[in-house]
Design goal:
Organism: Antarctobacter heliothermus
Strand content: 15-25%
Shape: globular
Protein name: Glycolate oxidase subunit GlcE
Structural class: alpha+beta
Family: Belongs to the FAD-binding oxidoreductase/transferase type 4 family.
Largest sheet: 7 strands, antiparallel
GO molecular function: FAD binding; oxidoreductase activity
CATH architecture of the largest domain: 2-Layer Sandwich
Keywords: FAD, Flavoprotein, Oxidoreductase
Number of strands: 18
Length: 465
């Protein structure tokens, strides 16, 4: 076996100065992700520009037992892209570009380092639509989206990322190339191996290219903000929206009153409607193909809500700028880190049975305050059972991450929820995985990991030890 530096010497020759960064040239951004974990000290950051270079890197690192941590846009919140000390970070930031766009087959083939927003815009230019959408769309990459099985704002209509993928190309820990670039919706020729890699957080292979499924560009978008008196009414409105809009319902976002006040009173987001004595604000969005036909469905829903007395107050978007303003209230959490709003805080991404989400919010809020002195606010994609929690202890440095996590995830487990709805496990959620997965499930995950990466070199220490 050659020393790590000798292995890097070969990779330096392969990748050149743009593709191999080390020592003083090692970018600080590649030392960690948005999890706020302390920066690591990798041996180097490798930046391949082709699949062939990825294959070469993996073969060399496998032969010399050097750990490899794949990286996309580094927008993850769980430490999944934080490299190991003495290993290498494999950044796909140069592996970018749209290779093929098929308007007839409604597919797009892209390289894994391509930003999500680039994919969205390319689809729109030919009158098509890629529905995955996250707040970090300009920074996150499509490979990272696949590796975490990202959710986002439109899961209620289009599903998670895995539902938008037809095929992938992946490189295993030993450098084996898997060319699985299927372009067909129906393909039952054996195991659907791509599913092993979607949501695996880079622990089973490095995704290098992907075939995405596209949809027709929406011809019209309607949105409304509704203030309701209690969570039971939230559920009634959700039922009515599902029944009257069917597959046209593209988003059903709910903001608890405490979140709403932080967003509009502290973060400075203009409130399109007054909360008053309401308990929740609901953002309902519908995407249709024809405003004259589908728009009447949305109007009918709003009339029903008013006739049934379900809404205390509300606002209906009259323009795209209104829709943007409505979403600004939902996306205000991005401003909470500002010391003038909340400052340092702890974020949680959990999944729960929809009927129990308010029960969870009330119990978690009480326990966080009583036991830790932590304040908390709640919001999320209630239509698909995904709740976000922002908790903070005023003037605490550091924030009580472990203690707060213990409270939040214990309650999630008691309510048969999941400790991760859309951000993965990474390192931060490893201790809590048994709350959402049985011992037999975790054992099978370990067997899959052992089969594909027997030396444990690919993104080690993530998901489980």
């Amino acid at each position: 076996m050659v020393l790590a530096q000798d292995c890097l010497s070969e990779l330096r020759d392969l990748l050149g100065p743009l593709g191999c960064k080390e020592g003083a040239d090692l970018p600080s951004r590649n030392r960690t992700d948005w999890s706020f974990l302390p920066p690591a000290s990798p041996l180097a950051v490798l930046r391949p520009a082709t699949t062939g270079e990825v294959v070469h890197i993996m073969r060399h690192c496998h032969a010399n037992q050097i750990t490899v941590t794949p990286q996309g846009g580094l927008t993850g919140l769980c430490g999944g892209a934080r490299p190991t000390d003495g290993g290498v970070a494999l950044s796909l930031e140069r592996l970018t570009g749209i290779e093929d766009l098929d308007p007839v087959g409604m597919t797009m083939t892209v390289r894994a380092g391509t930003p999500l927003e680039t994919v969205q815009k390319a689809a729109a230019e030919v009158g098509l639509f890629f529905p995955l959408d996250l707040g970090a769309r300009g920074s996150c990459t499509i490979g990272g989206n696949l590796s975490t099985n990202a959710g986002g704002n439109r899961v209620i209509r289009y599903g998670m990322t895995r539902d938008l993928v037809l095929g992938i190309e992946a490189v295993l820990a030993d450098g084996t190339l898997l060319p699985m670039l299927n372009r067909m919706i129906k393909n039952n020729a054996g195991y659907d191996l791509k599913q092993l890699f979607l949501g695996s957080e880079g622990t089973l292979g490095v995704i290098t290219r992907v075939v995405l499924r596209l949809y027709p560009q929406p011809g019209c978008t309607s949105a409304a903000l509704c203030i309701v008196p209690d969570y039971e009414t939230v559920l009634s409105v959700l039922g009515a929206a599902r029944k009257r809009l069917g597959p046209l319902l593209s988003a059903f976002e709910v903001m608890w009153a405490d979140y709403w006040h932080q967003a509009t009173d502290r973060a400075g987001i203009r409130a399109p409607v007054a909360m008053g004595k309401g308990s929740h604000a609901i953002l309902i969005e519908m995407q249709g193909l024809d405003s004259e036909i589908d728009g009447t469905r949305f109007d009918s829903l709003l009339e029903h809500l008013l006739e049934e007395g379900l809404v205390l107050n509300g606002a209906v978007a009259q323009s795209l700028s209104d829709i943007t303003a409505f979403w600004a209230t939902r996306d205000a959490a991005a401003e909470f880190a500002n010391p003038a709003v909340i400052g340092p805080h702890i974020s949680f991404d959990v999944g729960l049975p929809v009927a129990r989400m308010d029960e969870f919010a009330r119990q978690a809020k009480a326990e966080l305050l009583d036991q830790l002195g932590c304040h908390s606010v709640f919001y999320g994609h209630v239509g698909d059972g995904n709740l976000h929690v922002v908790a903070w202890k005023p003037d605490a440095d550091p924030q009580p991450l472990d203690a707060a996590s213990g409270i939040v995830y214990r309650i999630v487990g008691e309510m048969d929820g999941t400790v991760s709805a859309e951000h993965g496990i990474g390192t931060l959620k490893k201790p809590y995985l048994p709350l959402s997965r049985s011992p037999s499930e975790i054992a099978l995950m370990r067997q899959v990991k052992q089969a594909l990466d027997p030396q444990g070199l690919l993104n080690p220490t993530k998901i489980f030890d």
